[in-house]
Amino acid sequence: MFTGLIEEVGQLEALRGIGPNQKELTLRCRLIQSDLKLGDSVAIDGVCLTVVRFDDQSAAFELSSETLDKSLFAAKRSGARLNLERALRMGDRLGGHMVQGHVDGIGRCELVEKQGNFYRLAFSFDGALEKYFIPKGSVAINGISLTLSKLDSQQLEVAIIPHTYLETNLSELSPGDLVHLETDLIGRYVERMLSFGAQNQPESKLNESFLKDHGFF
Fold first, then answer.
1. Alpha carbon of 5 to those of 26, 81, 164, 197: distances in Å?
2. Exposure string over 81-102, b if 16+ CB within 10 A, otherwise e
3. What is the reported pTM?
4. What is residue 174's predicted lDDT score, i.e. its pLDDT?
5. Is the Cα torsion angle 131, 214, 95, 150 positive or negative in sign?
6. Residues 6+ apart with CB under 8 A from 89
7. How high is the pLDDT of residue 8?
8. Low-confidence ranges of the chain (pLDDT < 70)
9. What is the helix, strand, coil percentage profile of the chain, to 5?
10. Residue 21: predicted pLDDT
11. Do 1 and 93 meet the contact criterion of CB atoms below 8 Å apart?
């Protein structure tokens, strides 16, 4: 589990094949190794990956066929800058929102506009994701916890403070660039539970009316 607060931006050093539709990704980084152990989880551009090797200047991660199919890593080139966050520890402050590091879809940057010292970014997305977004709700874009400032059926917008823009790879985005999107997991759990309630299971008291009565809507 992650929070969507980026600790550092690493640089892609190598992406090499290690088996059929499997690759190893090596990053140049300098901060996250301070307390890493083999097998630890790190969110890389919002994708949860497992550390298989590291030293004081780099860390390596294995990419499965599923990860390669659902993410943008296969198209990344040496030198690409990637957002990094170590897994949340029990007792840490949850400064962003609950992020799993599982990519729900790919977004396309449609607008980058500076407004004073702040930035306005817009992204289009697959229509199947629309139901998981709500105005002022949370979204992880390349692993960054952000709040939706505007939403319609085809596009979402986020307002970015200068620190977030400059200290992540959002500062490198241009219209047409693709990003990883992860929707708020609470909405996905609610949808899943409601789908079981809709299957004529009288023992379940969890339904839309119950959630409304108890302040979830």
1. 21, 16, 9, 35
2. bbbbbbebeeeeeeebbbbebb
3. 0.88
4. 97
5. positive
6. none
7. 97
8. 197-206, 215-217
9. 20, 40, 40
10. 87
11. no
